[in-house]
């Protein structure tokens, strides 16, 4: 669904960037605002590394590494309330799922570049919104 020719990448992100309800639930589970802020900061610090790993897997057309990397991004983003990024990762995971006996059909280089540009842009916006969320939570103490 995400990778069809002619679609604009803005259509790829229909979910809100952050799920503040999920962040609130995580805060309740952790029971401590400092722990919540620390978790969000760690997620944010590792976000570029996760996207870089996706880039390497796409460039190498390494299906196993791609699936590991996209699953890591999807689940960590869901835990951190990064709803749009988790949703996009889930769509990419489905688009690149191997369906035996058919091989994975990797898109052309320009499509790969577009995918990565979209992921990086959304990751940057996610990090920005998480930073604002942490500032608000820390300021409310």
UniProtKB/TrEMBL annotation:
SUPFAM superfamilies referenced in this protein's UniProt entry, alphabetically: Histidine-containing phosphotransfer domain, HPT domain (SSF47226)
Listed InterPro entries: HPT_dom_sf, Sig_transdc_His_kin_Hpt_dom
Pfam families in the record: Hpt
HPt domain: residues covered: 32-133
Gene3D superfamilies named in the record: HPT domain
Protein name: HPt domain-containing protein
Organism in which the protein naturally occurs: Citricoccus zhacaiensis
